[in-house]
Amino acid sequence: MNNLIRAELFKVRTTSLWWIMGIILVPLYAASLLANWAQANATVPDGGVSDTQRQQIEAALNPINVATNLYTSGQFFGVLIVLLLAAIMVTSEFFYLTATATFLVTPKRESVILAKFAAAVVISLIVWAFTTILNLIFVPLIMNQLDLSNQLGEPAVWRAIALNALAFILWGVLGVGAGVLIKNQLAATLILAITYTVGTSAVGLIFFLLTENVARWIENLQVLIPTSASQLMISGTDLPGNPPRFVGALVLVAYAVLGGVVGTVLTKRRDIS
Question: How far apart are CA 243 and CA 122, in angstroms?
Fold first, then answer.
């Protein structure tokens, strides 16, 4: 199994894909950090918001929540990079016509797909470590500008950083499953990128409209959106009007397990000729 995992990582290292994704990640990370910094400078509006919205804004401006939000900067785009890399690890087998050779060398298909899952975990942790190291360098400076302590002595901050790592891992697993479902590399890349970015915003808008015009409890169902789930699980404290943090973790785990099971089953049954 170790040889299979090393082989999967070698496939990634020997293509230009990894450094292209790395170059893309850097400005996206910077944009995320600046956006979170701007959010931390926000103030509670005097009017025009409901009591629940006011409580949510006040909670978000709590020093612990400001810190956890900043120290996990880069998650939104970071997990997108992980999702795409993990999916491409699968689709590239069909794009470069190496799938047949791969499964002839390793007849146990479940071993191949498990190796891809493991490689996706490694890649996920590398991307997480990259963004986390940058956050540990820059965020204390931002916290000082905000006249707040760096909050690194707070367990909630380190819990958020650890759960952020879990989020990256789960998105990596989900990416492998998505790559099995969508064999065409270009289609997989476009569908996943568009669904993740545009789809997330569109579904969020739908939930907002339903919450404002139908019933307030619908807002809690946003946790079923994977991106919302991963954001919820890294919050420093439970936020008013939102489900508990562990619900976000459970939802994301469920998506990852589903993606893993579907990916393994389809790989074992699919004709790869």
Answer: 30
Nearest Cα to Cα of residue 215 among 52, 73, 30, 86 = 52
CB-based contacts of 66, cutoff 8 Å, min separation 6: 40, 60, 143, 146, 148, 151
Distance, CA of 69 to CA of 86 (rounded, Å)? 25
What are the two backbone dihedrals, phi and then psi, of residue 218, each rounded to the nearest 5 degrees?
-60, -25
Q: In this prediction, what percent of the chain has a pLDDT beyond 70?
A: 87
Give residue limits of the domains in the chain.
2-269
Cα separation, 171 vs 230, in Å, equals 9
Residue type, 117: F
Q: What's the average model confidence in pLDDT over 233-255?
A: 76
The pLDDT of residue 252: 86
DSSP label at residue 198:
I
Query: What's the pTM?
Result: 0.87
